[in-house]
Amino acid sequence: MFYHIKELQYPSKPDRPDPVYARKLQEVLGGHFGEITVAMQYLFQGLNTRGDGKYRDMLLDTATEEFAHVEMLATMIARLLDHAPVKEQEQAVAHNPVVAAVMGGMNPQHVIVSGLGAMPVDSVGNPWRADYTIASGNLLADFRDNLSKESQGRLQVVRLYEISDDRGVKDMLSFLIARDTMHQNQWLAAIAELESKEGIVVPSTFPRELEKQQVSYTFFNFSRGEESARGRWAHGPSMDGCGMFQYVAQPQPFGPKPFLNPAPPSVHDTLPIVLRNETNLPPHIG
Amino acid sequence: MFYHIKELQYPSKPDRPDPVYARKLQEVLGGHFGEITVAMQYLFQGLNTRGDGKYRDMLLDTATEEFAHVEMLATMIARLLDHAPVKEQEQAVAHNPVVAAVMGGMNPQHVIVSGLGAMPVDSVGNPWRADYTIASGNLLADFRDNLSKESQGRLQVVRLYEISDDRGVKDMLSFLIARDTMHQNQWLAAIAELESKEGIVVPSTFPRELEKQQVSYTFFNFSRGEESARGRWAHGPSMDGCGMFQYVAQPQPFGPKPFLNPAPPSVHDTLPIVLRNETNLPPHIG
Amino acid sequence: MFYHIKELQYPSKPDRPDPVYARKLQEVLGGHFGEITVAMQYLFQGLNTRGDGKYRDMLLDTATEEFAHVEMLATMIARLLDHAPVKEQEQAVAHNPVVAAVMGGMNPQHVIVSGLGAMPVDSVGNPWRADYTIASGNLLADFRDNLSKESQGRLQVVRLYEISDDRGVKDMLSFLIARDTMHQNQWLAAIAELESKEGIVVPSTFPRELEKQQVSYTFFNFSRGEESARGRWAHGPSMDGCGMFQYVAQPQPFGPKPFLNPAPPSVHDTLPIVLRNETNLPPHIG
Amino acid sequence: MFYHIKELQYPSKPDRPDPVYARKLQEVLGGHFGEITVAMQYLFQGLNTRGDGKYRDMLLDTATEEFAHVEMLATMIARLLDHAPVKEQEQAVAHNPVVAAVMGGMNPQHVIVSGLGAMPVDSVGNPWRADYTIASGNLLADFRDNLSKESQGRLQVVRLYEISDDRGVKDMLSFLIARDTMHQNQWLAAIAELESKEGIVVPSTFPRELEKQQVSYTFFNFSRGEESARGRWAHGPSMDGCGMFQYVAQPQPFGPKPFLNPAPPSVHDTLPIVLRNETNLPPHIG
Amino acid sequence: MFYHIKELQYPSKPDRPDPVYARKLQEVLGGHFGEITVAMQYLFQGLNTRGDGKYRDMLLDTATEEFAHVEMLATMIARLLDHAPVKEQEQAVAHNPVVAAVMGGMNPQHVIVSGLGAMPVDSVGNPWRADYTIASGNLLADFRDNLSKESQGRLQVVRLYEISDDRGVKDMLSFLIARDTMHQNQWLAAIAELESKEGIVVPSTFPRELEKQQVSYTFFNFSRGEESARGRWAHGPSMDGCGMFQYVAQPQPFGPKPFLNPAPPSVHDTLPIVLRNETNLPPHIG
Amino acid sequence: MFYHIKELQYPSKPDRPDPVYARKLQEVLGGHFGEITVAMQYLFQGLNTRGDGKYRDMLLDTATEEFAHVEMLATMIARLLDHAPVKEQEQAVAHNPVVAAVMGGMNPQHVIVSGLGAMPVDSVGNPWRADYTIASGNLLADFRDNLSKESQGRLQVVRLYEISDDRGVKDMLSFLIARDTMHQNQWLAAIAELESKEGIVVPSTFPRELEKQQVSYTFFNFSRGEESARGRWAHGPSMDGCGMFQYVAQPQPFGPKPFLNPAPPSVHDTLPIVLRNETNLPPHIG
């Protein structure tokens, strides 16, 4: 169960309105790697954790914090939308191309749909989708995804920091960047714990002898040129310590050409006789 | 530029048809963590890599291999759909509930839409979407996502292996599982290389003094109970070696209650006067 | 900012597992009218409310409660998935058609993707989408949508109650049904307050003389037959008290046939000359 | 069955082209609350009404009218796109920033995809989706959603009216605004009829004694601060006349902490032993 | 503007209910190639046709008919849902596996969401989307898509005909199949008209000398083996009569290896120095 | 199985960067009719072809080429994004409205998400979706869709050619236009082959006597006015040579008014008694 307090986790106030930037900031609120994503992802991972304990608790701690980030970003966006130019006055536009550009660069739904409020969408207007998230029941798999989300997320917030020259915006972003630093460290720490218990290949519980071990440490060079041979993945012991990396410069198929049986007539696929009746053979080939 | 050969990377033939399993196997072809996802993700990461070299080459090598896995799975699914019961014969169904169950468990689009062919969809029929993928220009961020994709992917293939009792299916899955073993090792190796050059916090190029460093290593316990204090993330040196983890058992807000300015009348939000005119105060509170 | 406690708002435990029902129950967790929808809708409405006061507070109170319902449903679904039949053992299926039917009626992603956990999807597997929600800045408009969401939501929970014969499930649903009773009453009360201040037509702030008032209270009978004349909407004073309903039995157009100008050649639409050159006139028509 | 006549329900001609406004106007054609939504929603509600009579007839009357609004908006958008600047001539842009701004503010698909025609998309380019609509079989629930759709719809059309300074556009919008006035009145009238027959809680047919009545009229204050106590929903008789509103200032959980059973090994979730083996306890906590 | 009459274009009544078939029939109502698609596609093509005349009229004629097919299918689906088993009575299921299979094969939303009504979704529950449609302003391009839609559509209806053994269903489908026969003929006739005026390559208005004519009639054999040389596309005069088909058995690239410039530091992509510093060269390669 | 070489099929280098054009060019990479669509569509059609032979080979040849076009477009877009203005420097914008317009016209995700790389999205940012594609098992149906895709595709590329004044961009587009010329010719050739073997109505294998032949060649004029009578589809022999087109100027329904049975009480639809109890009859109608 949750409780809410009205204070923000961190101040969230721009120096001045900027509706074009409001549109861009939506990316880290409602985009693929935004705050809604991590809030919902950690929430479902936590709620689905089978067995009690510190991982479940930690996931719900951080999920709960991420909802506070949703709140901060929504507040910031609403304030960036103050005084947005909503009238399309021909004169103004004709005489003031900067106003015209601002109106072109805004998300029109910030006026028409949300009435100058934040929306659960990304910077081009795609609504947030729950399949941005994963909760698989396997915590090592999920923590790796969490680390990915925090890495992409911090990268995007940093880019938004670079784009802005508003001190209020930058101050709030510097807080989110720091939290993403923590969260990358946090998932790295949790991953290290789990890897030390389970090993590094997910899932660790599948008997290794059941996989086709001949190709478990083989790098296939499917792109002409061998630059890829220069990486750590191409030689030396494998990262899981169970094998040696091999580099196959000219990979060959293990399987035959496939031939699919005809479909039954009731499916009305192209008939075998039509497929077979191939008479347009030019003289120089047949 | 690409070339195709008709042979499969690995044989892909079930012992017997099984249209219900065909539906399930779609997950690792067209689902969030399926082969289309990794093929397209590595392709775009490779094509967007600025600067030539081994990472670009390696990404395109592996992208190219993943399209061969798309081919193997599509072939397997088409074969699992051979002889699918497509007629809804009342008698058969009434007298043979297993046939009825099979028809209930199939994806009806495998008959109606694809004519017994594989589709670029997941196991419940959601079409594959390109926003399952990411190519950010920052390879460390992206390789972490690649590791996540291969971890979730191997987990799903292993679950499909457990569900099946068809030797042909299991043989092919054992190949995919082995390749996912390699690819987890591969991304771990590439990540290790990049982390050794750049450090572990993504992006490494953002000046650390610009982030709000007071909270860069702080764990906030937002969920009542302190089980989360028992993790590596709650004490000791941070994973990036730049700080010490701190555990805040009772986190407090840094920011004030927000107050948003009224919207201009032309937006037709609820008027401030309506919001302010709050007279329904019961006697015991006012 | 939010806090979490580990206790559930209400007990959430089925008498016995039932993976087919787990799939169905997803509808009110991750469907269009499920708990994620109301939680996120009230959250964004609250955060975007310009001006402080009771409406903002009330919205955030109820948003916060809805996240507790998300938690209850996720817990219930995870428990319904205990002991789900995940092996497709040919013998079992052949000899036990009920098991086969159960496997056909489950969501296969509950095994393959979530590892027996709840997912943010509906009962057919569509991921939750943020455009299920609305926060417009106009509270009367939004509260009407809230009332709609709670009406559809209670209807769906009631249908799920009827379908089930599990006492644990029914007990939890009886709690959600009661809360939806409250929430319908709550939005009706809030709507009554706002309507008494503003009037009933949204938005109330648009000057009525600017709308085409001749058709502001007219019912057009576009479907042959006049059964629709028997409704309250077809006669008597309008609900807003500003006009009289009129019934137009045979509506006629107010506008002319449209004629669109040709596109410029650089757009490569079909050329006007091709559109105009219409020579295939049969003798009996020309 | 339907018939079409070529005349428009109302004239639909702008004074001058304006491709940036064309993009914005798409919102009320193909957006969540646009004319396609109400047309399709009323159509499916009408077609699914079980039992003949005035409600079915009325729904199909109004559905049919909404398709005429689709036609008017499509025509208007096509005309606003006349003479759109489709050439990206560097000079023109460099010397005429207003042209540059116009090109930035347009929907590029209006040139590339539709060849200067209207599209079934919203103002940021999201394609219309059928899950914007609902037809539940319960008319009171559905009419409440219809009222919501007409409220949001009129709000958006009014905002678009405010933004424009084109007399032709405003004239057409004044017609749509008036029709939305009627349709809000219409659904209010129909709702009043049904509520007088059934009661106000949807669905009215579920036995009230089966719901957890202790919480059917309780407002839970989950957000610190008691501003929400000042509303009509917090005290006095409930709107359905069956109870008294109660305000719970400090809500407590009714349920215990949940504990989920471990998953079977074949699912390859994190093993219970790994979850339990929690040794990283710092000295000051254990 | 549209009018509606209550009679159906063709009778639409099954001999007996069949909720599993109702789910499947949804494909041709709300699927990619269903009746909503063609209704909306022809409607937008008609409304966007610049210039009056027979094509615009014909498009709107047929659009209007397709809405009658939407009506017929919605009616049929509602009737197939009569008496659907909505109670999950454990006994019934345990003792009657056919009932269990029926419940597994139904779309659960037909009970929970639509209350036994048709929905604008396909046979696996994906909501209809407007980007299934195209209206490009170029009628030859669009009529080819219309022909494609009617071809896939008739194929799907035929497959549904084969699956059914209900005389009422089959009778209605035989009507839809015949209309699709007409519509394939209709678009073929319209295409023939336009091709005779414009030529067959769309768009016909682009100066042929501006395209890279060396490859305008070349078939590239990118897949090892030359079976593809046996087709009409590989030799002889081209279909547009402007060139000769050529078959290139071993296609070579025309372009160089691409090299992308580094990104500016403010974007925080992987730094050039990190990409360049490639030291892991194994002895046997460097 | 696939192989990759690093050379591009055709040079892909703009004369100068242009981030606004980069956004537009995305349409033919990741839009409905872009290169990803044809690559994936031909790939799945090829892999699902039951029976070996030239059609399967030809499909895979051309699928493989289309991935080279994906590569060319991604490369071009990355280069167009070089030196994009990513800093929102107030001064620059205030003094240089063209820079402001450029920033308004860009896709902000090209900076924030992809770090100046191409994305698998269209020109307004919708992610590519696999349901843009079809592979039905019936090659004539599918080749018609392929022809449609190449027609819309060439139309869009031509429009993008018209918009640009960059010689490098236009050179690459002239190559793609030529390839689309070939591919339209190719599918026309393949269609001609199949039609000569099967006939023109898809599917050709359904017994014509089972369709309702009275309406197999009838054009229904559902839109007032008879301009549509002037087309080839309205008179003369049908295109398939099996009948004569007929023009029905005033189409009448073949079916009765539908009446749907009431739903069972457990579904909680509006009760029949409520639907029937229709007392609001005004005096002048009853």
Automatic annotation (TrEMBL), chains A, B, C, D, E, F:
Name of the gene: yjqC_2
A Pfam cross-reference name: Mn_catalase
Record note on cofactor: Binds 1 Ca(2+) ion per subunit.
Protein name stated in the entry: Mn-containing catalase
CDD domains the UniProt entry points to: Mn_catalase (cd01051)
Cytoplasm keyword on record: no
Cofactors (names): Ca(2+); Mn(2+)
Binding residue positions for Mn(2+) 1: 35, 69, 150, 183
GO MF term list: metal ion binding
